[in-house]
Amino acid sequence: MARSTFASRSYRDDAVVLRTYTLGEADRIVILLSAQHGQVRAVAKGVRRTTSRFGARLEPFNVAEVQLVHGRSLDIVSQAIGKRSYGERIVSDYERFTAAAAMAETAERLTADDHDTAAQHYRLLVGALSATARGLHRPGRILDSYLLRAVSLAGWTPSFVDCARCGAPGPHRSFSAPLGGAVCPQCRPPGSAAPSDATFVLLNGLLHGDWPTIDAADPRTARDAAGLVASYVQWHMERTVRALALVDRGDG
User: In what residue span(s) does the DNA replication/recombination mediator RecO N-terminal domain sit (predicted)?
Assistant: First the structure.
């Protein structure tokens, strides 16, 4: 009977580790973004002991197949099978690490109460972490593309060509984070930014994952775009992504 009750309370899912922190002498609380169950907060008992069988699998940025048991306030991780170990390659490089930390923090905040798009957020984050770990593109540019696509999943899709307020065909020369991106002269609020044409082209490429355009951008354009991405994301999330202040942009 006890075994049947345990089975009814348990579930399995693939999950990426967003963050961990210690609990007591041997346990750890892990915050997971799972493919089917959204964000999960769980206790991994005994993982800080040297004899732990799955402690390394539950480090940030790693992907594992986990078995969890429903608890009163926190679920319990009863098993973790490693699937993709991105963490070691990410944390060994500061530029990769800071970019991945900003991605994980953003994912944690966007998925805290959103189960409807959990699978899409999961795939987007795993893809971004994979690209970062493998060094496919500059980490800062992977981050900026991830940020724009993540907030789009959350319902705040920007426009970088047509006017975000009235829909007037673009391209336009002004940018307003509160209004949703590019704005025409008639809709432009006082104090709006005036990015270069190249910056708008890069922003649109970041939004749509156009990697030839993204990779070809010069460092100055990439830095300008990064500042606009950060302002847009944090305005619509209504909170600061603390890890963004630590991001090492390298050569842009």
Answer: 10-82
